[in-house]
Amino acid sequence: MTNGLTDNTGSGAAAKASSAHPAGVPWPVPAAWHCRIDGLDWTRATTGCSEAAVFRLAAPDRPTLYVKTAPSQPCGELAGEAARLRWLSSTGLPCAQVLASTRTNDRDWLLLSAVPGRDLSAAELSPRELVTLFAGALRQLHALDAGSCPFDHSADQRIALARERLAAGLVDPEDFDQENVGVPPAELLQQLVAQQPAVTAPVVTHGDACLPNLMAEAGRFTGFIDCGRLGVADRHQDLALATRDIAAELGEGWVGPFLNSYGQPLDWNKTAFYRLLDEFF
Question: What class of enzyme is it (predicted)?
Answer without folding.
Answer: transferase
